[in-house]
Amino acid sequence: VSPEVRHLSIRTERKVPRLGVMLVGWGGNNGSTFTATLLANRYNIHWESKRGQHSPNWYGSLTQCSTARLGLDHEGCDVHVPLCELLPMVDPNTIEVDGWDISSLNLAEAMERAKVLEPELKKKLRPYLEKMKPRPSIYFPQYIASNQATRADHILQGTTSEMLETIRRDIREMKERVDKVIVVWTANTERFCEILEGINDSADNLLKSIESESSHISPSTLFAVAAILEQCTFINGSPQNTFVPGCEQLAQMKGVFIAGDDFKTGQTKIKSVLADFLVNAGIKPVAIASYNHLGNNDGVNLSAPPQFKSKEVSKSNVIDDIVAANPVLYKEGEKVDHIVVIKYVPYVGDSKRAMDEYTSEILMGGLNTIVVHNTCEDSLLAVPVILDLVVLAELCSRITFKGAADKDYKPFSNILSILGYLCKAPLVQKGAPVVNALTKQRACIENILKACIGLPPEHHMGLDYKLTSIWKDKYANCNGLLNTHHS
Amino acid sequence: VSPEVRHLSIRTERKVPRLGVMLVGWGGNNGSTFTATLLANRYNIHWESKRGQHSPNWYGSLTQCSTARLGLDHEGCDVHVPLCELLPMVDPNTIEVDGWDISSLNLAEAMERAKVLEPELKKKLRPYLEKMKPRPSIYFPQYIASNQATRADHILQGTTSEMLETIRRDIREMKERVDKVIVVWTANTERFCEILEGINDSADNLLKSIESESSHISPSTLFAVAAILEQCTFINGSPQNTFVPGCEQLAQMKGVFIAGDDFKTGQTKIKSVLADFLVNAGIKPVAIASYNHLGNNDGVNLSAPPQFKSKEVSKSNVIDDIVAANPVLYKEGEKVDHIVVIKYVPYVGDSKRAMDEYTSEILMGGLNTIVVHNTCEDSLLAVPVILDLVVLAELCSRITFKGAADKDYKPFSNILSILGYLCKAPLVQKGAPVVNALTKQRACIENILKACIGLPPEHHMGLDYKLTSIWKDKYANCNGLLNTHHS
Amino acid sequence: VSPEVRHLSIRTERKVPRLGVMLVGWGGNNGSTFTATLLANRYNIHWESKRGQHSPNWYGSLTQCSTARLGLDHEGCDVHVPLCELLPMVDPNTIEVDGWDISSLNLAEAMERAKVLEPELKKKLRPYLEKMKPRPSIYFPQYIASNQATRADHILQGTTSEMLETIRRDIREMKERVDKVIVVWTANTERFCEILEGINDSADNLLKSIESESSHISPSTLFAVAAILEQCTFINGSPQNTFVPGCEQLAQMKGVFIAGDDFKTGQTKIKSVLADFLVNAGIKPVAIASYNHLGNNDGVNLSAPPQFKSKEVSKSNVIDDIVAANPVLYKEGEKVDHIVVIKYVPYVGDSKRAMDEYTSEILMGGLNTIVVHNTCEDSLLAVPVILDLVVLAELCSRITFKGAADKDYKPFSNILSILGYLCKAPLVQKGAPVVNALTKQRACIENILKACIGLPPEHHMGLDYKLTSIWKDKYANCNGLLNTHHS
Amino acid sequence: VSPEVRHLSIRTERKVPRLGVMLVGWGGNNGSTFTATLLANRYNIHWESKRGQHSPNWYGSLTQCSTARLGLDHEGCDVHVPLCELLPMVDPNTIEVDGWDISSLNLAEAMERAKVLEPELKKKLRPYLEKMKPRPSIYFPQYIASNQATRADHILQGTTSEMLETIRRDIREMKERVDKVIVVWTANTERFCEILEGINDSADNLLKSIESESSHISPSTLFAVAAILEQCTFINGSPQNTFVPGCEQLAQMKGVFIAGDDFKTGQTKIKSVLADFLVNAGIKPVAIASYNHLGNNDGVNLSAPPQFKSKEVSKSNVIDDIVAANPVLYKEGEKVDHIVVIKYVPYVGDSKRAMDEYTSEILMGGLNTIVVHNTCEDSLLAVPVILDLVVLAELCSRITFKGAADKDYKPFSNILSILGYLCKAPLVQKGAPVVNALTKQRACIENILKACIGLPPEHHMGLDYKLTSIWKDKYANCNGLLNTHHS
């Protein structure tokens, strides 16, 4: 084992642009709740529920509501700041929203349909939201569940190329209102696309297939292509393989950031915590049964097998890296019994329920069984994730790096795997390891942000206190970069 | 924010001594199961349960069964090794056990009483265990529940000073059989001791109080004093304040390591994971209700209010540092509604049950409720924690540090706060922050061990893959110490 | 075994009186929600929550929303009617409410404090409720938790006798507005009263003790005495022993109905179902751990040990009759490990949580473990129970019986044990068995109501269908009284 | 409403025959555990588990371990006796077992494979069980999951008619050893059979189809036909439609008892308790999500969609009668959102887990959520159900009835719907209502048994105590048949 020291300079453009976010599926529960939350925060709208008075917040947002340790204050106490204060980031109150939907409801109507927010809040938001109407969207019935047909009253007509052109024009319109645009797919889960030679396996073939009206191009891929061609970051919040090889290649060629897949919110998020905890404690999970039910339109759509398949795959791999990292507990190739079920139960609406059972082997043939019932309000957990994705993706576009041997500062590679914390199935560079363990994903974000301001990574050793016999005086900053040498 | 670079040299004595572990409460469920597990592993004893054939293991042990990433192999894949292979550590198979108990049962009988292991395993272990008989122990009825009186048939007589002397002689006897002895309190939870001026507030006063037969000295403090006077590391696995100021001072004066309090195993461990996860995700826990019941002798003893009080305090502070680290979610002084209940339910025996409900505020007045039912086999979770405590404490005694300005290598300060991962209420140096968040505690151990072999801390940034545009070639070791500079 | 046939004539007065209900603790969560629900139903008030539009209902009421099988219709199908249609009962919409409280808030303010109902509903109810103000009540600090002192701003002054007289005058005032008055204690749980010779052991002594200002008379007993002396039925909805022997005797002497104790709503109700189910299935519950937490004023008050003690006793006996009825599974004197815990967790408010674990022995040493988490909205479950208690108690006062040898029709004996379904600790005649099993309690009510209209009890044998070879034709009414003879 | 009194004489043959039980799927987990339990009880075999010493029992059996109230003893106390003492029933210790299996393992090997019983118990039972070897069985691959092929090493060859003849001969052989034989299908769940005109729609067509080798006859139907033709009661313990119309007709023509379908053990049993409780309390269940997983061979087989379909149907209708009986809560045609999921999770083996969530509407728009996690040891719950089925079915064959107008005593009609308590999808006479509510099903059995000894049904009115003013003296037997008249 011989470590190697490399030097890296990081530069962060400090001017924060006006950001426009365009949502595909704007009128869905996520889209309408995201928009409502932005406005409630911007206009500081208060409301009453049966539990009392409420004020708007961004609870559940990594950037707005979680903190990092900056160092010590003059009295030797830890100073924690919200992540969004480590570096200049977009203020949510300044974000402009726009988007598309296959349903023609305006955002006020969409918010009513969603049944996510309290009556008084909805009433106060209505004047703002009823002026917002999604642009018509792309509807290819074969990609989403047939039960979505009744919603699809607001769809683009014409050839695929014409649709692509319309979407690009929509984006360009938005660009005139703001400095930078990010496009987020928060629409229905589509079925998986087959990867076909000559069709979607290269950027070139993909563009040709669009022109030739191939039926193998999904709406989400079309939106991604439109965003890439307009030099806009595209984030995929659903599990399907939007980023077919041709699409990934196109993004690389154009130097456009892409990120995904599938917002990580409730059950999967907690599983990537618990499984990691257990394995890191030397305990061996052997069976994980995960059941979900929900009653919103996501649930309706997922009740169709091909769409569920996309979701199942996305949710299934979450423990793979955790298992692979412990060859003491798991022999090569050994698998955990892991099942994932999602069912549609209309009554519960947006109040998604997750029920999990973790069975683990402990000492000497013993078993530990952990049963979790989690009432995850679906959209209320997803909306801050959407915010974090766009805020962090925007920030990433202002960070550049220069290695010791380099002449110029260069950006992140175009697949933003740093956003893995926010995604169930993190998209990574070819050949790169997929990290699902949540604490590692969070450390990645936190430590990179700290590196941008010249702080060393958090190592949690706390040696100042453990070695008081050596360091008599308390140092002003125990975040000091520690160079250890062994002998 | 201005970090400061300090250099530190670390030296680890590589010769591993023969280790003797002396358990106070040897015949309890933890003590007997620990001994049985050691022997089953040493002699590779197999057994059958209704689920099939079993072989011995150390599942649940951080040092034996969890891994750390060492670097990359020649094919660029991560290499993970068990923590116990990072540095030379005591092999569990070589540990000698001895101890005291207020009950006269030999270890075979104690194992039967515990009802923790399978019949066939117990049968095979009996020949070894029936030769092991605890030494008589100290029984001061006012410190433990009155229901323990029936067990107390094997107790030291005489003055307190005589008892102290007997314990010291016992330790010296053990020292003749091995190279190093560690004493672990795994006996009953005692009631808290009042800290009294002139009695237990200084090393001197403490020793005088022992001589003068003060009723304010608990058995656990007496055992700690005996160990310290014999230069043996003492670990407190129960929640009471064994380490009264006088005891702590004595340890410091004698340069003896102490650690505690209260083995962290089931409910508290998972709580220090979940609460940390939630707060770090920007979600605000507002109410945590924690219920436990168990039916072993620990449960009997804790059914008395003063003993339960010790436990309740130990379990209550586990989220304090997590809350304090997030001033965005929690205003200064704001508290989580947090209750902890432990009940005695004889039927469940050693199969402790923990039921928790976490209520958290999420976006826009929403609530997230997580309900956990955890079947924690009490002793099976505690035994590997005991092993880790003695193995790591022994290792710590072989590590020394030298700062840039120092002449000599010096040891850890004598309170081993590095063992916080294994303790519900981590004992720390005066003035040092208490860390309860489990992932931070684990990172502390892992990164210090790595530092001992010259590896930098794990930062999880994965920049090799995120910056492929810069570093064309894959480096052989992405663990390389990264010096980042911002501009 | 030789059964004996007895004949009994039952007469039910069909004229339904105007009913007045007087609540002690009117401004509490139960009292204010009961009043709000009555009014919302009477005025058919609709409201919106985030889940959509709501109309008022009496869900959770046995009399209004559960059904009994009446017989078969012309097509041979079962006909089910709500219990309240079996016999003439008071229509909830006609009930007048009045009451007392130690807090001076009017009912609109009390409803706000309760945080039970939705904002829009509260707004619509406010005009009605703000006119309703509780009468001052009796506050003896030693009977309820000291934390209630801050609420007690509206209390009667003077001697105990004067207070009694005031309460009696209040009742008489109410009687002028309606035909019949029932008084219900829905106030705080008091601590238990000692039964003392010469103080509260006979009606006479009790009345004398009141005159002599004895400190051994609780407020709830005083209210009961006032109601009894005014010939009004008194129902005790809390667990304390309001009905000391002197009080019980007084009710008997005056021929006044009394009933109680402690509304049976959430955890205990389901326990009296599940334990009964298990034992009746030949499965042996061996350990039941029941944990509760709530954050309303009931929770505050119960956080004091003497008040909790009353509740614990009330909740503890619920499985005794079930166990006693199965001498195959339980040897004489054998007990189930049964614990009950109630904790105050402010944040959850009126949304009481119950967590239970049932461990049962099944075949051949196997164990069955049932874990239940129950989100019981405390007042929303209690209010329909209060309604059922007053509606059924009123009905009972119109039913009379005549045995074959009797000359006159006579009423129920004065302890209304028929209301056991609605009470955690059913009050019964001296010597009578206490039935806690919920299905038996419900059958009792249903079969007595049916008997009042000449229908035989429900026997569930369904012989019409099982013996089709005998009875070729389908009978018009399979409820027919079956006289079976064996040979 | 006008009840009608009918008189019925019941005669029970008191001589109990030697009973032989033939199990299809003898070597499965149910079959092997049933046999092992019979033998352990017969030979009073004790064993040790880690929890201590165990003796054999029939916990979970309605007939052996649950009780009925017989009346009062001389001191006025209730006398409860086990159901099996109400009437002469087969003693389990005298039952002879035989059967068929597609796997050739002897019963000792089958017991090992099942992993249900403790090692010491298995060791002691082995000498008895290894002599027992299933007869070869019928394997039509299209009826069960393809994953069963590897087990199928012990199957009948030849034409369908030849197989039928072999099975009949097997039964006749058994009949020589005992007085009466009952055949129970406890083998794999088959896919549903289509009902086809001319094939299986009449007894005649069914027999012809067997002769003509039709592929539309399932193995379970063939076994049923064999049993019927041999005048043996046939019970179907799996969910498939074994009793196609032709089979039902054949049983009727031959006057042979049939019963089924699908043993009711864990999740469905408790659901038929909880849903009934809620609706009977006036609470409205609106969504029930039921998840199961198990790891035994039943789970393997059910992982194939057609087999799961049979199970899903069987489990889905359990609340239908409960909902239909309450037109106050449910409008005509209104349905509860009800989903049932079963998954195969190998690790948990026979330790089936059921996780249910019940969401109910309560007062004024409130919601009650009950979450249940149930660790149901699959075979340990099923085996006593099998015992009850054969014991009660045998008893039923000795009971005859005579109406007032009849000349002769006649038996139960040939579909034993009285066994509904033990079946998930109770088979009933055409036109008869299906009762799923567990308490009604139990009352049916208990009251019929009581009627057989001349006792009136249990009405739970307890009037003796409620009317003490009338009946001064305590009657010797409050079970007295109560004739009530209203006026």
Automatic annotation (TrEMBL), chains A, B, C, D:
Q: Which domain of life is it from?
A: Eukaryota
The GO terms this record gives for MF are: inositol-3-phosphate synthase activity
Q: Name one GO cellular component term.
A: cytoplasm
Q: Which residue numbers delimit the Myo-inositol-1-phosphate synthase GAPDH-like domain?
A: 266-379
Annotated pathway:
Polyol metabolism; myo-inositol biosynthesis; myo-inositol from D-glucose 6-phosphate: step 1/2
Assigned EC number = 5.5.1.4
Report the top EC class in one word.
isomerase
Its main subcellular localisation, reduced to a broad class, is cytoplasm
Q: Where in the sequence is the signal peptide annotated?
A: none
Q: Which biological process terms from the Gene Ontology are attached to this UniProt entry?
A: inositol biosynthetic process; phospholipid biosynthetic process
Q: Needs which cofactor?
A: NAD(+)
Recite the UniProt keywords alphabetically: Cytoplasm, Inositol biosynthesis, Isomerase, Lipid biosynthesis, Lipid metabolism, NAD, Phospholipid biosynthesis, Phospholipid metabolism
Its recorded reaction(s) are:
D-glucose 6-phosphate = 1D-myo-inositol 3-phosphate
Q: Where in the cell is it found?
A: Cytoplasm
Under InterPro entries, the record lists: Myo-inos-1-P_Synthase, Myo-inos-1-P_Synthase_GAPDH, NAD(P)-bd_dom_sf
Q: What is the role of the protein in this entry?
A: Key enzyme in myo-inositol biosynthesis pathway that catalyzes the conversion of glucose 6-phosphate to 1-myo-inositol 1-phosphate in a NAD-dependent manner. Rate-limiting enzyme in the synthesis of all inositol-containing compounds.
Subunit structure, briefly? Homotetramer.
Q: Which family does it belong to?
A: Belongs to the myo-inositol 1-phosphate synthase family.
Name this protein carries in UniProt: Inositol-3-phosphate synthase
- Which organism is the protein's source? Panstrongylus lignarius
